[in-house]
Amino acid sequence: MFHLAAGRVGSLAAKRATAALSTSSARMMASHGHGTGDTHPPFHQQQLLVSALDKLRQDDRKRFRQVSTAVDMSKPLYTDSVDVPLPDRPYKEVLTDADKSLKQKEKGPWNQLSKEEKLALYRLKFLKTYPEMRHSTPEWKTVLGVAFFFLGLTGFVVWWQKVYVFPKRPRTFEGDWPEKQLKRMLDMRINPVQGISSKWDYEKGQWK
């Protein structure tokens, strides 16, 4: 989809460039008139314009030839999947002479086939074996490395903000300020039912 969108953008750019060249050539024709009402351009200007338009068309064709990879979705497709062991079509459809002779030999007794021939027949039908499909890839290292990189970057940003951006902690968070604040809350009997004051024994002056 991305390639097709890029091709459409390129085609649109080529069309706009063609229109711009046509407009500029028309202005050049009008500006190079001989004052006799003759608006026909010189022959060499016509050749330059035609060659420029041909070059743009050729570039546009090359661009579409590069990005237009048409896939007929109505035909069976080959996919390797552990859940779907039998794909819609064989992996190798165009067979060589050696492959054709091997397929003919396949119709006979299989005990006459060697191990290499059996593997070759398997490769004609499938691209990967089950162990190959289940084989782990080192992609987890990349994912883990990227995750740790962003975690480290986040920690660095938080440290930088703490040092250079955030203000200093208020003085009420240090020293005996929290103790005085707690004592004042108890004196004011804050949340006496189920809160902090309900856990304080006012007669004994200690926590229950």
From TrEMBL:
Keywords: Membrane, Mitochondrion, Mitochondrion inner membrane, Transmembrane, Transmembrane helix
Sequence intervals crossing the membrane: 142-160
Localization per Swiss-Prot or TrEMBL: Mitochondrion inner membrane
Pfam families in the cross-refs: COX4
InterPro entries: Cyt_c_oxidase_su4, Cyt_c_oxidase_su4_fam, Cyt_c_oxidase_su4_sf
Source organism, top-level taxon: Eukaryota
GO CC, one annotated term: mitochondrial inner membrane
Entry-linked SUPFAM superfamilies: Mitochondrial cytochrome c oxidase subunit IV (SSF81406)
Pathway: Energy metabolism; oxidative phosphorylation
Tagged with keyword Transmembrane helix: yes
Disordered: annotated span: 24-43
Membrane topology, from the record: Single-pass membrane protein
Any GO BP annotation: mitochondrial electron transport, cytochrome c to oxygen
Known function: Component of the cytochrome c oxidase, the last enzyme in the mitochondrial electron transport chain which drives oxidative phosphorylation.
Subunit structure: Component of the cytochrome c oxidase (complex IV, CIV), a multisubunit enzyme composed of 14 subunits. The complex is composed of a catalytic core of 3 subunits MT-CO1, MT-CO2 and MT-CO3, encoded in the mitochondrial DNA, and 11 supernumerary subunits COX4I, COX5A, COX5B, COX6A, COX6B, COX6C, COX7A, COX7B, COX7C, COX8 and NDUFA4, which are encoded in the nuclear genome.
Family: Belongs to the cytochrome c oxidase IV family.
Protein name according to UniProt: Cytochrome c oxidase subunit 4
Source organism: Collichthys lucidus
